[in-house]
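Task card 7
Instruction: Convert sequence to structure tokens.
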Amino acid sequence: MSLSDQSASSAISLITTSKWLLDSISEWCQHNPEWRLIHETLWTPQSEWPKEPQTDIRIVAFTPNDALSEHCLKASESAPKTIPTLGLVTHHDELWMKRLLRDLAMGYLTLEQGHDEFQHALSHIQMGHSYVPQYYAKALMEEHPTVATRLSDREKTIAKLLVSGINHRDIANQLHISEKTVSTHKNNILMRLELRHLPDLIRFHDKHPFAFKTKK
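Output:
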């Protein structure tokens, strides 16, 4: 690959609990030069979330309901939220799909989708769009509460940050607003969704993660 090709390719950070998934995605990147694997983490019980400098997109590859995957997902609480992330799972699990979309990922795929949709999902997510296969997204959209349409895109963004466990100060710094403005948005979000407390918002988001998709 030439230097110009390398500069045009997208840098991937891969974090997975499976050696064969790591090898498979690494091999896929070798045959698709527009995607460049620059960080590889094979998760162990002793692992901590890796540093991911110069990463354009992150892939997390899990086996749902596996103890090691649970450990990795818990550790992702410290992951930078600014890196677009695709959650890839070995098989579909509705609860895991919702957890990934709530806590970490902008997109969700299973191994059933194949290479073409995998590449399509990566491209979609890197442009800042959510991605879920149509037959999974349909179920999420059918659960869409109409009340969520009352939220602005800014409120949806703040709601997602709040349910991810980020405090008011860090949200304010990330969005370049004051902590008071964050608090005001939070109160408005709770009021418009007819909720009382942050735990209610977390439960609401668990049940309806796609309701918080923004237009951007």
